[in-house]
Structure formats: C-alpha cells, structure tokens
Amino acid sequence: MALAKVSGTKIRGGVYHLNIAIPPEIHHLHQVRALLTGTPKTADPKVAARGVTFARAQPIQQVEETARSADVNARLAELPPGSTGAV
C-alpha cells in the first residue's frame, strides 16, 4: 500500500523524508542550502506531518531572531559614543 502524500516530504524506501525550502534570509545559517532535509523516521503520515510543522517552524524562528538581532545592533549603533544604553 502506498503512503499518503504529506506536504513538505518525499517518500523514499517507505519512509517520509523532509523536503522544505529554507527562506533566503537565513541561507547563510545553513551554508547556502536551499532545502531543509532529513527524516522524521516514520511511515505514519500524521507523525510525518507533525515533523514537517516543527521543521518549518525552525527557519521561521531563525528569520525572526536574525531580524531582531539586526534591529538591536542598528539601535546600538545609533547610541552616542560613551553611552551605556541604560535607561
């Protein structure tokens, strides 16, 4: 019996494997790889779908952290010399 299709995966050897695009904003964090790959090591489509959801959340979180870090660095660069930034 064929496995059910799960978005964000490919089926190889009767097991789901991740196949998720990495946002361009964080390619530098993944050595310019365009896809997040790996396997949830399961043939269960529900478990594979949860694995895809978790894997998709990681790059989104990294994009947000990168943007937040850039914002903090930009604000620190705007401070006058000798300022501690304490309020």
Give a topology summary.
Elements: E1 9-12, E2 15-21, E3 35-38, H1 45-78
Structural commentary:
By secondary structure, the protein is α+β, with helices and mostly antiparallel strands. The chain has one helix and three strands. A three-stranded antiparallel beta sheet has the order 1-2-3, with helices on one face. The relative contact order is 0.16.
Summarize the main sheet.
Answer: 3 strands, antiparallel
Which structural class do the helices and strands define? alpha+beta
The number of strands is 3
Strand content: 15-25%
Give the helix tally. Answer: 1
- Helices and strands, in order, run as EEEH
Q: Whole-number radius of gyration?
A: 19 Å
Low-confidence stretches: none
Key terms:
3 strands; 39% helix; 87 residues; 1 helix; alpha+beta
What is the gist of this entry?
With 87 residues, this protein is α+β, with helices and mostly antiparallel strands. 39% of the residues lie in helices and 17% in strands. It is built from 1 helix and 3 strands.
